[in-house]
Design goal:
alpha/beta, Alpha-Beta Plaits, 17 strands, binds flavin-adenine dinucleotide
């Protein structure tokens, strides 16, 4: 076998690439397979914090910064306390995960991590990978780079493709005295919104004196850069009523929420993963847990000799997501009351199962009936005619 040939190449050591590599590392089926991980960055900074919900124990429990069994949802004068058990809402710092993964993968003799930027992948047998520093080939390529066609797409309130952006800015703050309850987190607080958009704040207390507070929007067009900090300041002032705090870290990100058909860009043994594979839940923007679930499915598929991406995509839930995104895209101001309807009328356990694509048709109908019919029917008919 030529030295630059591998059985499996993974492009990108992010949430998806690392979870896939770790899952391969812990399955003896892959022990004899040469696996190459190509990542352009050092992955030595805390570039994001992941939150996700999970029932019982999880694979990352020893790495978590915090987890909560109790939460809150706020809208106008309404407050819905959330009792999550058997779920917990878990918080994982990116850097803690990168460090752990680096250590685990370095101990695997069959896995090579290269700092390398991939510029081109040419499908064939084997698949050719062109990097800035060298060329490689592999039988299978799992690729976290976004397809060019998606990068060219612009979100807009009237675009044919359902595409809403989830921009957010957060501050990790410290207070001189006890101001937070570390046993509860705020899932969504719609009491303060930017103009009449779908925008909210969430609060993740790590201790009585430290919390990550983020202002988030689900919008078809981005606000001006100063809006996030202005809204965060207002939230501290008017809602939390905390005047004295120190900002110790900031986080900014934009998550795409879209029904773009990412799965079409997986061809043969060149499979897109993570955001590039459509693993971000279009209606919520969450994907960390999907990366774990889908990595496991890929492994089962490879072991069974099935196409690697079998069963990764649900047309039923994609349809629901498209309809919901259509409402957020065309009638953005309705978002807060729609989320309020969902949290007011359903148990959080049912909501989590629905967002995890795990509910039955009867359960789906229970959730769907929480919403007013008009905007959804309109979005549905627009979908039929696009
Ligand atoms: C700030 C932030 C916070 C988020 N918080 C949450 C959250 O709380 N919960 C949740 O579920 N989701 C969250 N998300 C959404 C989603 O989970 C993350 O974006 C997740 O990291 C996506 O995984 P990924 O592997 O597709 O991409 P990434 O984690 O971004 O990994 C992609 C990797 O590929 C590398 N790469 C890209 N191009 C190349 C190339 N040409 N050659 C080599 N390497 C390349 C990148 O450097 C990167 O390391 C968040 C996103 C952001 C940006």
């Amino acid at each position: 076998m030529p030295p630059n040939h591998y059985h499996i190449a993974i492009i990108g050591a992010g949430a998806a690439g690392l979870q896939l590599a770790l899952a391969m590392r812990s399955d003896p089926f892959f022990a004899e397979q040469r696996i190459l991980l190509l990542e352009k960055d050092g992955k030595d900074e805390n570039d994001r914090t992941w939150c996700f919900w999970e029932k019982g124990e999880g694979k990352c429990d020893s790495l978590l910064t915090q987890s909560w069994a109790q939460g809150d949802f706020f809208y106008k004068d309404q407050h819905h306390p959330l009792n999550l058990l058997p779920y917990r809402y878990k918080m994982l710092r990116g850097l803690d995960f990168y460090r752990f993964a680096k250590q685990e993968l370095a101990a695997a003799p069959n896995i090579t991590w290269l700092t390398e930027e991939v510029v081109k992948v040419a499908n064939g047998e084997p698949i050719r990978i062109v990097g800035r520093q060298g060329e490689y080939s592999a039988d299978w390529v799992f690729d976290s780079r976004l397809p060019e066609e998606f990068l060219a797409l612009q979100p807009s309130p009237s675009g044919a493709r359902r595409y809403v952006l989830q921009p957010f800015k957060g501050w990790v703050v410290r207070t001189p005295d006890d101001r937070f309850d570390p046993t509860r987190f705020t899932m969504m607080d719609y009491r303060l919104r930017w103009r009449d958009t779908t925008s909210f704040t969430y609060v993740l207390p790590m201790s009585a004196r430290e919390a990550l507070v983020e202002f988030t929007l689900f919008v078809p067009t981005l606000p001006l850069a100063e809006v996030y900090e202005e809204m965060l300041r207002q939230y501290f002032d008017k809602i939390l009523k905390i005047k004295d705090f120190e900002i110790v870290e900031t986080e900014f990100g934009i998550i795409p929420m879209t029904d773009f058909p990412f799965e079409k860009y997986s061809v043969g043994k060149h499979i897109r993963i993570g955001t590039a594979g459509g693993w971000v839940k279009p209606s919520s923007g969450y994907s960390f847990k999907n990366c774990e679930r889908n990595s496991q499915k890929i492994i089962e598929n490879l072991k069974a000799g099935r196409p690697a991406n079998t069963g990764l995509f649900s047309s039923k839930f994609r349809f629901y997501d498209s309809v919901f995104l259509g409402v957020l895209q065309a009638q953005n101001k309705l978002g807060p009351s729609l989320f309020n309807d969902m949290y007011a009328k359903n148990d959080i356990q049912k909501i989590f199962a629905f967002l995890d694509n795990e509910t039955t048709l009867t359960e789906d109908l229970g959730i769907i009936s929480s919403f007013p019919k008009g905007p959804f029917l309109q979005s549905f008919f627009n979908l039929l005619t696009r």
